[in-house]
Amino acid sequence: MTTPMRTGLALAFALVAGCEFPSGEEGAGRGEGPGGREQPLALSPRQELRVGREAYAEVLEKYRGRILPENHPDVQRVKRVVARLAKAAEIEPLQREIHLRTHGYSFDWNVSVVEDRQVNAFCLPGGEIVVYTGILPVAQTDDMLATVLSHEMAHALAHHGSERIAREQAGGGKFTQLRYDRFQESEADHIGVFLMAFAGYDPNAAVDFWKRMERLAGGREPPEFLSDHPSHETRVEQLREWAPRAAAAKRAFDEGRVLK
């Protein structure tokens, strides 16, 4: 398995960018996003949920016959990890710390596991998740699988698909768009490592996972400035900084040192 993992955000954008919405359904506009940054959004909460569901239906149709049954051990494993991460995402002190804009939004967190060698997973707007079996041997432990899934769920929680549409509508050159894409990927890593910790997974496993991905890539990555993803080296360096902070935040929460 040599295909590098990508988040599927590009696929989500491709599926939603051409959608037309009835009059009266306005987008979300501008507001405070993750980390307190200004974040333009193109889709309202209702639009985002509907777009995700419609895109998910298209994905299921595309892979009809290759989706593992609900009772398959791989499906049960993925769903178990997603359930813990989804519960962590509801913790209000964590939402406040990361500045997640979740009020008024709904997330489905539906999961499908596709039998395919792709080393990949993605989460559509509104929380519809697709995991390819090719990534499961790479994410050997549940902690590593939580690294993958928390990152993908973070894209939905941070409304990155809606933001990407808004930024595309605002214009900008190719390198500007790539820079924004890399920023979103790093932001999803950052949010994800905190979700992992609050769900009871070891955030240090994120470093181990991306080291494995780096070895899998075998030096075949494009230069970072030409990519829509940070380099594996950058991700490992950032996660080494963030993982101890996430673990410390979880300890503070468990010990009652933050308002619950």
Would you mind describing this structure in some detail?
This protein has 260 residues and is mainly α. The protein has nine helices and five strands. The protein has helices at residues 9-16, 45-62, 73-89, 92-98, 142-157, 160-170, 174-198, 205-217, 232-254, and strands spanning 29-32, 38-41, 111-114, 121-123, 129-132. The strands form two sheets. The chain has a three-stranded mixed beta sheet, with helices on both faces. Helix 7 packs parallel to helix 9 (232-254). The model is unreliable at 1-9 and 17-24 (pLDDT under 50).
Short descriptors:
mainly alpha; disordered N terminus; 53% helix; two-stranded antiparallel sheet; 260 residues
Q: Helices, strands, pairings?
A:
Elements: H1 9-16, E1 29-32, E2 38-41, H2 45-62, H3 73-89, H4 92-98, E3 111-114, E4 121-123, E5 129-132, H5 142-157, H6 160-170, H7 174-198, H8 205-217, H9 232-254
Parallel strand pairs: 3-5
Antiparallel strand pairs: 1-2, 4-5
Helix pairs in contact: 1-6, 3-5, 5-7, 5-8, 6-7, 7-9, 8-9
Write a compact overview of the structure shown.
The chain is 53% helix and 7% strand. The protein contains nine helices and five strands, in the order H-E-E-H-H-H-E-E-E-H-H-H-H-H. A hairpin with a 5-residue loop joins strand 1 (29-32) and strand 2 (38-41).
Task: Give unreliable regions as ranges.
Answer: 1-9, 17-24
Q: Cα-atom Rg, whole angstroms?
A: 17 Å
The count of β-strands is 5
The N- and C-terminal alpha carbons lie at a distance of: 43 Å
Q: So what's the overall shape?
A: globular
H/E element order:
HEEHHHEEEHHHHH
Mean pLDDT: 85
Query: Which class best fits the helix and strand makeup?
Result: mainly alpha
